[in-house]
């Protein structure tokens, strides 16, 4: 929000500090519609969760600062977007709102075709429109009745119900977690041997912005935890929907069941940490960390698929699941195990790093100086803006996983980095320029989901830039 024209973070600004002052939210901006237009036109808004706040701050910038890339990146330090990889947001802020002279940014675009492409890349139902950039994309908690009870997890792991969010927080007895100084750990080791390539990965938080949320009326169907966005597969089995239904029936009133950020980190699924070792003949060892209730056989099945897709011979590999203490692991997260194996396979050749999927989708990634360039073959783009945005987001996640993303655990396997700022997600000023080149020859062909290939190719290119550091993240201790 703006307080007397200056940007402030609403959720940490006490009401007393704005008494008698002019407060402006997104809806109060003179050019709110224009900003939403340009955010949609550049692919700078996917789920829309972070977009209104970014727009409000951008609207407070003088025109000359919006034209300064470094100033824009500094502005974005107060924000986090997990979807778009920053590049489209930078471009939208530099372009500024569309005026009456410029016309509507969405002219000539087919929102239905764009939504199909978004659904292909996101893996769940998606909605593309200018309204999404205003925050009206349909988040799980937005349509709950005002008189709904609120359910939160208490410190003892039981759900408590209050008349309001404040009441539920008091009943829960929990204090919001902080960032720790605990060292990172890598839960599975590469075995001793003569290897041409090795890699160990650690615990990585999916980092979706809307914590798990669902509401339900008595006898009704709960709102989906996914809301507008797929959470990278991390909400597929979220408990909040069943909890909302159970508690609504129990209390005879609508109930909102909500995770805090701490709940997301400690109870939400993580991609399995891995240890991968490849020998000179293309065989090797794959060790997969496992924690929680998911059947370990699922990890083995996904590993076999990944090895075959990466071009390895299954008979030459030993796959082992290792039980570890930690948050629950799940192969439901996007490209778990498969992405890492594809990246390792691509790394065995010289640059550029090429990843092809069985569908025919393909991505080719390499650095041109400091710029990450990715050529994508995705069949008919349907909407090039959305395709580029999802590919940029996949590349941003890959860069972060190789360079900086990780969550530390304590000695009993509980995550202790409990704020969204502690996950190591690359900030705008730390993210290199990302250029997505869409193959023109594919236009008119069958549309193909390509973001998993982009993720794996970008992993390989980012890893190559570290001279194949044996552990991810390479830039953190």
Task: Provide structural commentary.
The chain folds into 3 domains: 2-134, Orthogonal Bundle (DNA polymerase, domain 1), CATH 1.10.150; 139-175 and 212-258, no CATH class; 274-465, Aldehyde Oxidoreductase, domain 4, CATH 3.30.365. A 4-stranded mixed beta sheet has the order 5-4-8-7, sandwiched between helices. It has a 4-stranded mixed beta sheet with strand order 6-9-10-11, with helices on one face. A 4-stranded mixed beta sheet has the order 12-13-14-15. The model is unreliable at 100-105 (pLDDT under 50). Helix 1 (32-41) crosses helix 2 (51-59) and helix 12 runs parallel beside helix 13 (451-465). Helix content is 29%, strand content 14%. It starts with a strand and ends in a 12-residue tail after the last helix. By secondary structure, it is an alpha+beta fold. The protein contains 13 helices and 15 strands.
Keywords:
14% strand, 29% helix, DNA polymerase, domain 1, 3 domains, single chain, alpha+beta, four-stranded mixed beta sheet, 477 residues, Aldehyde Oxidoreductase, domain 4, 13 helices
Provide a short characterization of the protein structure.
The protein is of the alpha+beta class and 477 residues long. Helices cover 29% and strands 14% of the residues.
Q: What integer value in Å does the Rg equal? A: 23 Å
In percent, how much strand structure appears in the residues? 5-15%
* Domain count: 3
Please tally the β strands and state the result. 15
- Alpha-beta content class: alpha+beta
CATH C-level label of the largest domain? Alpha Beta
Shape: globular
**Which architecture of the largest domain does the CATH hierarchy give at level 2?**
2-Layer Sandwich
Strand order in the sheet with the most strands? 5-4-8-7
Average pLDDT figure: 93
CATH level 3 topology of the largest domain? Aldehyde Oxidoreductase, domain 4
Which regions contain 5 or more consecutive residues with pLDDT less than 50? 100-105
Helix content: 25-40%
């Amino acid at each position: 929000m703006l307080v007397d024209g200056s940007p402030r973070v609403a959720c940490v600004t006490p009401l007393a500090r704005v008494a008698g002052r002019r407060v402006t939210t997104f809806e109060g901006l003179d050019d709110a519609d224009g900003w939403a237009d340009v955010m949609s036109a550049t692919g700078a808004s996917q789920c829309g969760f972070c977009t209104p706040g970014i727009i409000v701050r951008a609207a407070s910038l003088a025109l000359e600062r919006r034209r300064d890339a470094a100033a824009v990146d500094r502005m974005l330090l107060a924000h986090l977007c997990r979807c778009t990889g920053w590049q489209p947001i930078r471009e939208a802020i530099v372009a500024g709102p569309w005026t009456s002279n410029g016309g509507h940014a969405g002219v000539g675009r087919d929102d239905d075709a764009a939504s199909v492409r978004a659904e292909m890349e996101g893996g769940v139902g998606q909605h593309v429109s200018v309204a999404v950039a205003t925050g009206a994309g349909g988040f799980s908690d937005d349509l709950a009745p005002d008189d709904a009870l609120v359910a939160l997890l208490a410190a003892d792991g039981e759900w408590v119900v209050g008349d309001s969010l404040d009441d539920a927080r008091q009943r829960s007895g929990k204090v919001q977690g902080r960032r720790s100084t605990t060292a990172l750990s890598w839960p599975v080791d590469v075995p001793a041997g003569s290897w041409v390539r090795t890699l160990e990965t650690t615990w990585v938080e999916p980092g979706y912005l809307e914590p798990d949320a669902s509401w339900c009326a008595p006898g009704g169907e709960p709102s989906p935890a996914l809301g507008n966005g797929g959470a990278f597969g991390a909400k597929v089995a979220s408990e909040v929907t069943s909890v909302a239904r159970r508690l609504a029936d129990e209390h005879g009133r609508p109930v909102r069941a909500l995770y805090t950020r701490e709940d997301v980190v400690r109870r939400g699924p993580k991609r399995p940490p891995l240890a991968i070792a490849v020998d000179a003949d293309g065989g090797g060892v794959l060790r997969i960390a496992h924690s929680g209730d998911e059947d370990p056989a699922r990890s083995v099945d996904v590993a076999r698929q990944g090895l075959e897709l990466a071009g390895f011979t299954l008979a030459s590999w030993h796959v082992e699941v290792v039980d570890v203490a930690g948050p629950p692991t799940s192969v439901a997260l996007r490209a778990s195990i498969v992405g890492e194996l594809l990246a390792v396979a691509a790394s065995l050749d010289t640059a550029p790093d090429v990843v092809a999927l069985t569908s025919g989708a393909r991505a080719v990634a390499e650095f041109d100086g400091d710029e990450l360039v990715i050529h994508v073959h995705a069949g008919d783009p349907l909407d090039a803006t959305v395709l580029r945005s999802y590919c940029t987001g996949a590349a941003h996640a890959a860069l972060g996983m190789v360079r900086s993303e990780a969550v530390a655990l304590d000695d009993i396997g509980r995550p202790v980095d409990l704020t969204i700022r502690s996950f190591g997600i690359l900030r705008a000023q730390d993210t290199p320029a990302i250029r997505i080149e869409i193959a023109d020859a594919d236009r008119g062909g069958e549309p193909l989901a390509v973001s998993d290939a982009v993720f794996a190719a970008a992993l390989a290119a980012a890893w190559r830039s570290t001279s194949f550091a044996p552990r991810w993240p390479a830039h953190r201790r």
